[in-house]
Amino acid sequence: VVDHARYLGVLFDSSGSLDRELQRRLSSAAFAFHSLQPALRRRGLSLANRLQLYKLYVVPCMTYGGAETWALTSAQLQTLQTAHHQHLRQILGTRRHPDGLSNAELYTLANTHSLGQQLSVRRLRYLGHLARRPPSTLAQQLLSASGLPGQPRPVGRPRKQWWDDVAADLQSLGVSHQWFSLAQRRDAWQTLCARLLSRPEP
Asked: In angstroms, how far is the first alpha carbon of the chain from the final one?
């Protein structure tokens, strides 16, 4: 028995923890950012183009392939956010608040959003995809499952689950009860997901 294994480019841990996978992604993002330095430092390359390179080649290292299914702890999300901030500040040549820009000002200047907001959008888009699946599919059935039959509730505080984040996202949009019917209309659901990008971030 192995304690971790890679499948389709994602590192799975036998404990269910995302820590190893997140560290792997952060290392990939750091390598990609370092590889971009010659281009990012090129004279004549506009700030908009430098930021576009970052969004195309570095951000996906942290969010591609299954990030919409993550149930991150606050510490794990903060680790991702910190790397995102450091990369943006290096591109923009600014320091941290209070000597430099606040995070909100940083996002505005870079014309981007926090990774927390981006992951929320990905999560709800995925939820909409699941909700539009035929009722007979396993994915649809799991949406309404309350737990595995015959399984005792574990002792102590339950581990954070994907649905906890989804429920928080839906509540912030005021659609906790009518989300399923909204998800059946793809265009309306996409518009709803986009509203998450205007949600204030700490």
From this structure: 41
- The region of weakest confidence among 12-16, 83-87, 99-103, 178-182 is 12-16
Specify which residues 11 forms β-bridges with.
6
pTM: 0.82
Distance CA 153, CA 151 (A): 7
DSSP letters spanning 129-150? HHHTS-TTSHHHHHHT--S-TT
Structure tokens at 83: 């790397």
Task: List strand residue ranges (DSSP E) for the chain, in order.
Answer: 4-7, 10-13
Can you say how many angstroms the Cα of residue 87 is from the centroid of all Cα atoms in its chain?
A: 17
Phi, psi of 4, deg, nearest 5 = -160, 155
* Count of CA atoms in the C-beta half-sphere (13 A) of 28: 17
Q: Give CA 157 to chain center in angstroms.
A: 24
Summary mean pLDDT of the chain: 85
Give the list of residues 6+ apart from residue 199 with CB closer than 8 angstroms, or none. Answer: 117, 120, 172
Kindly report, residue by residue over 68-126, the tens digit of the pLDDT: 988 899 999 999 999 999 999 999 988 766 567 888 889 999 999 999 999 999 999 99
**How far apart are the C-alpha atoms of 129 and 151, rounded to whole Å?**
28
Closest CA to 124 of 84, 200, 74, 67: 67
